[in-house]
Amino acid sequence: MDLIDSETLYSLLRNKYVLLCGDSGMRSMYKDIILLIQGQNRLLTSDELKAKLDDHDMSTLNDQLLAGDKKTNDTSYYERRCYLTNTHFIKFVFLTRCFSGQMRNELREIAENKSIVPDIILLNSAVWDITKYEKNSEKEYAQLLEECFRSIRSIIPPQTIVIWLTATPFSRDARGVLDETRSDKKNFLRIRMFHINTFSSELAKKYNFQVIDLHYLLRKRVQHRCKDGMHYDALIHREITTHIARYISCGLNKNLLKYSNENQDDTLICYDIIKTIVNKIDYQISTFDKEIIDKYRPLNLKFPMIENLNEKETDILYLIDYYENNFFE
């Protein structure tokens, strides 16, 4: 795909307030966006991707740390950053839960100061919610996510573009936020993420948010995962920025067709986004995917916990196994 350049993104986001709320993946999206609008067409370095809080490698991005001083993988972690010039305002808030105190504070500030309202909100939250809050985590996630979406819709004006980004795929031995998660549970979570992403995507559609299904986009991009099995390299983040820009351009009625999928009918791109027609977004499978599933099924392979999976979950496990173990053959 053609990657968006700094001049195009600078123009697209000129005089716009962009609020990004989410985990470390969202922080990397924030970094890539502010790097581009500063006129730098290069990719983020690996050190810049990993940097957080007041790390030295954050200084190259010329933003400001608003709050946060404690490096930890528990739910007390907090980080707020912004990049502010006379033409751009890009803000990032780290979330350990979809409707955490940090998210509530952001919405409260917006409600109290109607003159400073985001033009664009990018939002994601799932892995921390499911792994760091053990008791009834999925049930509570579902309840809190709806409460979060309802609050956003009640406070944010209709012209604000809100984009929900699904959780990305991770490996069976992923580290970072999953350091304390048992290996068998990690493997199960990789399958559960399809259901969680489907739920969150459909809920986002209910509240008329746009959805970018990162899980679907990155499922076949195993070679771009970082060593921790959780995060992705700089090229992937530039591709994500390009997808985000395409959605924003449609919402703002600006032409960015140069950066559309070359195999997709350009006349349908904005129509699909505006109408938010996505059916079971996390279970989109290509003809090639179907061929893989058809080859796996007769083999009757034995995976851990496979006897507890339904047909859809089993198909998902087959695809995960294929793309992670046979991709380079």
UniProtKB/TrEMBL annotation:
Q: Which family does it belong to?
A: Belongs to the PC-esterase family.
Q: What protein is this chain from?
A: Uncharacterized protein
Report which superkingdom the organism of origin falls in: Eukaryota
What the entry lists under InterPro entries is as follows: SGNH_hydro_sf
